[in-house]
Design a protein that fits this description.
about 260 residues; alpha/beta; 9-stranded parallel beta sheet; 10 helices; about 15% strand
Length: about 260
Amino acid sequence: MLPICYDPYAGTLGRFSRAEIFDLVADAGYEGINIPVNTAFLGALSTVEIEDAVKLAQKHSLIVPTIGFGNHILTTPTQKDAALKHFETVLEVARQFNAEIIGVWVNPSQGVSRENSLETLAENLSRMLPPCQEHNIKIALEFQKGCLLDNYREAVTFISDTDLPVYLTCDTYHLFNDGADPHAAAFAMQACLGDVHVSGSNRSEPGSGIFDFEIFAKGLKEINYTGPLVVQYKMEDVASIKRSCEFTQEFREMIIS
């Protein structure tokens, strides 16, 4: 219930090896880790690389509830075949880790209209969902200011309009940039909230900035949210990895108390 996980992101990827990241995450007290399916974390995406990551998670007793799609081409009409090919790898990684959620950042596609991009996303998702459902894995879409799904309202509308059984990733940084009421946002996503990303309001470590975590926690508690709390921020100070875990433990207590 509400496992606290770390997402290797800016400041960790490329600065530390995969093994070092696992060490840092475990030593900081996290219960889990997000696995981004990209070359920065999994190298050539080979069987050997994936097995190594699985062994590292087992060594440190870290769960992996979420998998990052990694290759941001699901909205690009000319990349449908490549996107679905990459999905095969992502699904295999998710199965290897017994993950619950595949997270998709809904990126803008250069030179493609919003309508065409969203149609492409819906088409790709419709092909990805059956094998995911076969293995009890959810797909969660992440909205972001300036992207195809600019905010939680557009994201909820996309799910309603397409009638696709997908979920949402709600990032506190994106809520803040939208100027959204965190309490109202939680209720709007009640039926489709897959996971929560925890970040400072300027993408620095959680707890920095002015995002109202207390009112967001109140909303999450009232909708009985029990999914992962995934720490994702631009790490500059290595000591912040532990501080972020401790802050998110406090945030979890706000939700369950």
